[in-house]
Amino acid sequence: LIITGKGIEKEIKLSWEDLKTKFPKHTIVATLQCAGNRRSEMSKVKNVKGLEWGNAAIGTAKWSGARLRDVLEYAGIKDISNIKHVQFEGLDKDLTNTPYGASIPVQKAWDVNGDVLLAYEMNDVEIPRDHGYPVRLIAPGIVGARNVKWLGKIILSDEESPSFWQQKDYKGYPSYVTFEDIEKEYKNAKSIQELPVQSAICYPAD
Ligand SMILES: Nc1nc2c(c(=O)[nH]1)N[C@H]1C(S)=C(S)[C@@H](COP(=O)(O)O)O[C@H]1N2
Ligand SMILES: [Mo]
Predict the structure, then answer these.
(1) What is the three-class DSSP state of 206?
(2) For ligand 1, what atom is nearest to the CA of residue 34?
(3) Ligand 1 pocket, residue 131 CB under 6 Å
(4) pLDDT tens digits, residue range 30-81?
(5) Lateral strand order in the sheet of 151-157
(6) Which of 55, 88, 160, 202 could bond to 148 as cystine, CB 3.0-4.6 Å?
(7) Quick check: pTM over 0.90?
(8) To the nearest 10°, the Cα dihedral for 59, 63, 66, 72?
(9) Phi, psi dihedrals of residue 160, rounded to the nearest 5°
(10) Which residue's CA lies nearest to atom 23 of ligand 1?
(11) Do residues 101 and 131 lie in contact, with contact meaning Cβ atoms separated by under 8 Å?
(12) Is the shortest distance between the CB of 19 and ligand 1 below 6 Å?
């Protein structure tokens, strides 16, 4: 795991062993929800793009790992007044060879009560590969898309992640915005971060 960017004098490299032995282990239970949860219902108002999820793009697990704050302190960060965002890159790449990327506000990462983890266990075992083995960012209360799996790199920055998924996806618009306008609208909508967990009636079905 590479840690670099603003405020870090020399790029830090941590192995999986380092993460498990150098930092206190912290455990939380968190419910992660995809921004597209119930997207099929949104599409009944106006067609949206993305997988047509029903009400099950959500899940709860117990996560254990190092606190991101502890790791940032280890990397030499003493205060966050000059930093705005923490960017994350996955080890998975798309067809253009670009890694998955996302970011969260640095305040969330630095908050001792924010519970942001570099998790290496899910439900008391190594994280299953589908869910992010070997290391996954867990930012409770923040939308699923920012909880980056197969984490390879952390970058401290003034800017949000430049990735497609931060800049041009996982944003919400009023229904008068059309896909014709979308290129100029991207910059007008904030990227989704906190997302209240929803409940839905599963039975009887819709
Ligand atoms: N590296 C990486 N992390 C990722 C993604 C991804 O495609 N690549 N998808 C994100 C999205 S959109 C969601 S909703 C969650 C899904 O987490 P899960 O597969 O554990 O349910 O992972 C997030 N983290
Ligand atoms: Mo998602």
Answers:
(1) coil
(2) 14
(3) yes
(4) 999 999 999 999 899 898 888 999 988 999 999 999 999 999 999 999 999 9
(5) 12-13, 2-5, 151-157, 85-93, 99-105
(6) 88
(7) yes
(8) 10
(9) -70, 165
(10) 145
(11) no
(12) no
